[in-house]
Design goal:
Strand order of the largest sheet: 2-1-3-4
Strand content: 15-25%
Number of strands: 4
Number of helices: 3
Structural class: alpha/beta
Largest sheet: 4 strands, parallel
Length: about 140
């Protein structure tokens, strides 16, 4: 069974969405984890846009990267774009998918614009994950 670890800073949006998407895509054939260097909470907008496509990530929670056992990881995928990605000290190969953080504290961004940003990140992750799926 292949094991994937998705990393970003807060483990609140990109990595949580990637975890949910990968769980649906790979099912029981893979172990899927996510973590961050400064974990917070799962972003409500991430929960909302994932629910739009039938994936419930409400039970997921933010985790610190140092709580992940390196022996449980076959591939690390970092998702940071403009910020410094967490370091994972395991020997697993690493891929870097620089996806802009959809979350922002900018009060001028409307709810619809935030949802659009989260949908764009979700859809980018979905397309990239499909390239990892083994052929039948």
């Amino acid at each position: 069974m292949k094991s994937y670890l998705f990393l970003c800073v807060a483990n609140s949006a990109r990595s949580q969405m990637a975890e949910g998407l990968a769980r649906r895509l790979f099912g029981d054939s893979a172990r899927v984890q996510s973590a961050g260097s400064a974990p917070t909470r799962v972003n409500p907008y991430a929960i909302e846009v994932m629910a739009e496509i039938g994936i419930d990530i409400r039970a997921q929670h933010s985790k610190a990267v140092d709580t992940i056992d390196p022996a449980t990881v076959d591939l690390v995928i970092t998702l940071c774009a403009e910020e410094v990605c967490p370091v994972f000290l395991g020997k697993a190969p690493k891929l870097h998918w620089p996806i802009p953080d959809p979350a922002t504290a900018d009060p001028t961004i409307t709810r619809e614009d935030l949802l659009a940003r989260f949908r764009a990140a979700r859809d980018t992750l979905d397309a990239k994950l499909k390239t990892l799926r083994p052929s039948p």
